[in-house]
Design a protein that fits this description.
The protein has about 140 residues and is α/β, with parallel strands linked by helices. The protein has helices at about 15-20, 30-40, 50-55, 70-75, 100-110, 120-130; strands at about 40-45, 60-65, 90-95, 115-120. The chain has a four-stranded parallel beta sheet, with helices on both faces.
Amino acid sequence: MSGPTGGTGPTGIDGLLERVRAGYRRIAPDEAYDAAEAGTALLVDIRYAALRERDGVISGALVVERNELEWRLDPQGSHRLPEATDHDVRVVVVCNEGYASSLAAESLHRLGLHRATDLIGGFQAWRATGLPVAAAPRQSSGRR
C-alpha cells in the first residue's frame, strides 16, 4: 500500500510538514510586515479566539477561523471575503507557532492560490521580533 507521499507506510506529521513546506517559500515576520504595509500581501490570522484574546492580534490582519479558511478565501466561492479577489492574491497565513499555517497554506495552493505562504514561527515569532501587536477586539456576547 502506498502512503500519502507515494512511499510505503505512514508519513508522520514531521514528514508531511517537510513535504508541504518544500512546495513554497515561507516568509519571516519582517518580510510579512513589509509586504502587508506595502499592500502586496494579505495577512490571515487563523488562530482561535482564546489565543487572540490572550496574546493580541496583528493590526490589519484578517481573522478567519481555520475551519472556514478555504470557503472564505476561494475567489470562486459563494462565501468568499471581499479581499479574495482572484487566485493571484498573496496570502500569508498566520497561526500561533507556524505549524498549522503550513498545512493551511498548502490547502490554499490546492484551491489555486499559488502565492499562498505562511509565517515562519507564526504569531509568536511576529511578537518576539517586536512587530506591532494590538489588543484583540472584545467579543460581543450577542445579548442585548
